[in-house]
Amino acid sequence: MLELKNVHTFYGHIHALKGISLTVEEGEIVTLIGSNGAGKTTTLRTISGLLAPREGEIWFEGQRIDGVSAHKITEMGIAHCPEGRKIFGRLTVRENLELGAFLRKDKDGIKQDFERVLDLFPRLRERLKQPGGTLSGGEQQMLAIGRALMSRPRILLLDEPSMGLAPILVQQIFDIIEEINAQGTTVLLVEQNARLALSIASRGYVLETGRIRLAGPAAELMDSEEVKAAYLGG
Amino acid sequence: MRNVRLGIRDGLVFGAVFLFVVLVGLYGAFAANSLLGVRVPNMIFALFGIWVGAYVMRSVRRQGSQLTDGVVAALVAGVTMTLLLALFTFWASRVNLRDIFANMTPEVVALLTFDRGVPTGLVFQVVGGALLAVAGALGNVAWDRIRLPEGATETGNRLASFLLVLYVIVGGFTALLFALGQWGPALRDIAEGALGFALPNDLYRILRIGAVVLIVGYLGGIALTLAAPAQAVRLKERLTTTRRLFGLAFILLALFFPLSLGSYWNQVLTTIGIFVMMGLGLNVVVGFAGLLDLGYVAFFAIGAYTYAFLNSPKYGLDLSFWVSLPIAMAVAALAGIILGVPVLRMRGDYLAIVTLGFGEIIRLIMNNQVELTGGAQGILQIQPPEILGLVINTPLRFYYLIFIGAVLVAFVTARLNNSRIGRAWIAMREDEDVAQAMGINTVNYKLLAFATGAAFAGLAGLIFAARQRNIFPADFGLLVSIEALSLIIIGGMGSIPGVIAGAVALKGLPELLRALQEYRLLIYGALLVVMMLVRPEGLLPSRRRAREIHEAMEEIEIDESELQSTA
User: Complex ipTM above 0.90?
Assistant: First the structure.
């Protein structure tokens, strides 16, 4: 469904991605793990068109999408839920969700998805009229994911959904990610919390300084000595 | 007892300030001036009286005391203040103080005693001060009652309904008086000017009665809605009604009030109207889309010069106002896009600097391309617009033209704000990256914002050129951009009523203050500073903007308290 072939991305002169190749198949949860600065976020930003790769190809459902502008990529069905819960803090929860469906014109479908998101995150329902910035960290993350779902994406790119959240909330969010996947959305998940990410993913890639270090089924990675030592705390 | 002491203290302070104003000569300086028919010194007196009362009432209420205590304290303060003044006036009337206080002339004493001589005038002072202070105190209470907080009590609701009904009646009456007294002749002038022959008197009578019935019916309907039992109408709905009501009263006033004004004030109103149009356009760029544009005058100039090129006999095209209108707006919009393309990737300060430069470039081109634009000598003999043979050449007629234009611009921007486009702009203003991730084509929407804003400025420029008849590069200086931006900030960023309020405050206030002579700009500047301190979100902010500002302020306060607790 999504394929990266030898992608190189630069920030000015800094060579951030040094030849990333990966694939995501329909219906999967695939996770990218790695430490700070490994290039996880850069990979997502490159896929979603916020950064353009200097070399390599990105294919999505038979179309080449590298170099295509971000809003067109969203239109194709790739939703990016950015790192750090970048919600619109001054807009209400409802307005945030409505913006998520910006590209869609099917009013009934939007309404349906709106209800679906509120069913997934009942706490947002109580806070529809509240400005996003006044939500708690966990609620903001829920809102960010909900907003991404409002575009009814074929694939959801999630960037560090556990960041800065209490462990109980993290578990909740991950349960919901599994549910979203079960409802038919493919997920590419970037995480620092490797154990949790591998526990819900079918396959995983380990990134290190812009390169893919390891790849394989999540269970195998979980058992790999290397991964254990570096990312799972022994 | 404590409140009485507070009243005496504040009364002495205000009395001392008042005396200071008298002694430095501010009081006497305006002896010959009147503002809206009241002598300026008497207004100062009234201002101090009301102010001291309101101030004392506020302090008393902050301490949690009863309203009656507040009224008593305000009364005491008013009496104390005026007693101080009366004693001084008495002294000055008996002894020649001019060696020490050069400004204590017999004329000033006469002013202070309201021309009634010493014993009577002094009584007037004290009684007047006491009454004004009580009025100020009650005004302070009423003000808080009118601006109902969310969880207002039922009594508060009822009081608010009552005040609103009162307001409707007074407002309606005023509108009617204008309609009856002023409307007739002017309407006749407009209609017969266009038709070229006289109409029967009965027609006007019927029209006038029809208008009265219409206004009364409409206002009465609103009044009835408001007078419905307080619990039956939800507070929120009532607030919406209040807003509509203010809007309606404003429109009625805007329609009829100018008829009773002379051409000087109508000229001022046309200037305000032109700035309303510009402000609404700039509001799209700055308020909705969040793109700080300091060179906005460029589009105003382009609109004006386009009309001049198309219309002035100098160029021989002689296109009419109405043909030039779409062309000028299109040219300005195109200029907006031309400016927009190179600044697409810029944000904040950088964008401001580049747009600032753009504004200057346009002005310099107008100034230096002498063969094309006439240089500093400008372009002369631009024709005024014509509607069905009626030439728009008086300030009043221009006022109505501009009024219609401003209403259209306001309508379009309001619709844009509530549309998909408006939502895209807001998202872009909040966070460009995320906006892109939502699928918003930020390039297009940015250019659209620039083009829309520019087109409205072009329209304002076109009307400006038609009004001035002659235009010069000096009319399009940086100051115009700054004023357009200031009026948005003063009125409330992103809010359409705010733009109107801002334009009235910024362009109307200096004219109102003209009676203050050389102190005019001083007072004007002070008022603007006070305004931004007291109401940083602007006069009539959009709800969202008010929320943002108050959140920001709360954060600052929290930070400060944290600092204090850690220190």
Answer: no
